[in-house]
Amino acid sequence: MRILFIGGTGNISTDCAALLHARGHEIIVVTRGRSAVPSGYRAVVADRKDLAAMRAALAGVEPEVVVNFLGYDLGDVAVDFELFQGRLRQYIFISTTAAYVKPPRNLPVTEDEPLGNPFWDYGQKKEQCERWLCDRRDRDGFPLTIVRPSHTYSPRWFPNIVASASCTLAARLEAGKPVFLPDDGEGLWTLTATSDFAVGFAGLVGNERALGEAFQITGDEVLTWNRILAETADALGVKSPQILRIPTDWLCARFSELTGPLKGDKACPGVFDNSKIKRFVPDFRTRKPFREGIHESVAWYRAHPDQCTVNTAYDRLFDDVATAWRAERL
User: Fold this and answer.
1) Which among 42, 50, 84 has a CA at the least distance from the CA of 67?
2) What is the pTM of this model?
3) Mean pLDDT of all residues belonging to the chain
4) Angle at which helices 168-175 and 290-303 pack, to 10 degrees?
5) Omega prior to 103 cis, within 30 of 0
C-alpha cells in the first residue's frame, strides 16, 4: 500500500513508518524540509496547514492510507478532509487517551470511556478533532479510524511528569538536582515503548474492520511513578536521587502550567484495557518492559552526548517547584 504520513519522523511515528516500510509498504512523508527523511521513503515538502500548498505538493500522489500524527486543531483535520475525501481506503487520526474524561470513571479504561477532559486543552482539542471527523464519517462516509496512544516513549525519551522529550530528567538526576512526583508517587501509570505501539498500529493500517472504530494502544505493564523514577535512576547509576513528593493540588495552584499535564493526565490513574486492539491485531502485546526500555534510553544518552539537550524552561520549572516547596516547609 501507499501510506502517507503527516508526521513520520517523530517520537511515535518513526517506529510506525519503519515497521510498515519493513513489511513492504511504500511510505510517503509530508515534511517542511527541516527533518531528515529516511532514504527509503518518499518526501513531500509542504506546509501541512496550507491547503493550496498541500494540494500542489501532492499532485500525482495517490495514497491509499493517510495517517495524521500532527492533527492538533480543527483546521489541521479540515485540510485533510478537503484533500482526501473520496480518495482513500482509510484515514487514521492519532488522538490521545488524554481526550477521555479525567479522572477516569472506570478502571481499567476502555474505548467506551466518555471523552471530555476538563483540565487540559491538548486533550480538549484532540476531542474536537475526533468529533468533527466522526461527523464527516457519518455524513460523508469518510473512512476514519481513530487511535489513542497514552504516554509513549522511544530511546531518546526519559518519561516524567513534566516533559519527556529531552534529556532534562537524566541530567538532573545525574547532577543530584531535585525532581518531583505528584502526591505520594504511588499513582498508577502506563508507559508504552514506541516499538510495541507500532505493532498494534501497523495491524490497523489497511484493515477494513478498523474503519469507523476507535482504538487505544498502550502497554500492559502498569507501574507507579515511584517505580518509573527508581528504574530511571537505576539505569543511570544514580544511587540516591532527590525526589520530592508534592500534592497535586499544591503543584497546580502555584504552577498553573502543570494543571493540564497533571490533573488532565499524569496525576490520574492511567490503567488501560487493550482487549479491543488485541482482537483486531492478535500479535500486539507488551514486548519491551520499561526496565529494558529505559536502559535503551540511557545507552542512547551515553552514545550521543552532542544530541542530549536540556530544556532550559523545564529545568527551571523543576528548580522553581523545588524552591517553593522547600520554602513552605521551613
Assistant:
1) 84
2) 0.96
3) 95
4) 80
5) yes
User: Which pLDDT tens digit goes with each residue over 162-190?
Assistant: 989 889 999 999 999 999 999 999 999 99
Where are the chain's structural domains? 2-152+192-217, 156-191+222-269+288-322
Average pLDDT in the 210-228 region? 97
pLDDT tens column, 35-85: 788 889 999 998 888 899 999 989 989 999 999 999 999 999 999 999 999
Q: Are 43 and 29 in contact (CB under 8 A)?
A: yes
Q: Assess contact for 6 and 30: CB atoms under 8 A.
A: yes
Sheet holding 144-149, edge to edge: 42-45, 26-31, 2-6, 65-68, 90-94, 144-149, 214-217
* Cell digits of residue 65: 492510507
With a pLDDT cut of 90, the percent of the chain lying above it is 89
- Grid cell 478502571 is found at 107
Q: Which CATH superfamily is domain 2-152+192-217 in?
A: NAD(P)-binding Rossmann-like Domain (3.40.50.720)
The pairing of strands 144-149 and 214-217 is parallel
Amino acid identity at 309: T
* All residues at 6 or more sequence positions from 109 whose CB lies less than 8 Å from its CB, including other chains: 97, 100, 216, 270, 271, 272, 273
3-state secondary structure of 54: helix
* CATH, domain 156-191+222-269+288-322, list 3.40.50, 3.90.25, 3.30.420, 3.30.300: 3.90.25
Grid cell locating 233? 535512576
pLDDT band for 8, please (50, 70, 90 cuts): confident
Q: What cell numbers appear for 235 in the block?
A: 539505569
Residue 246 pLDDT:
98
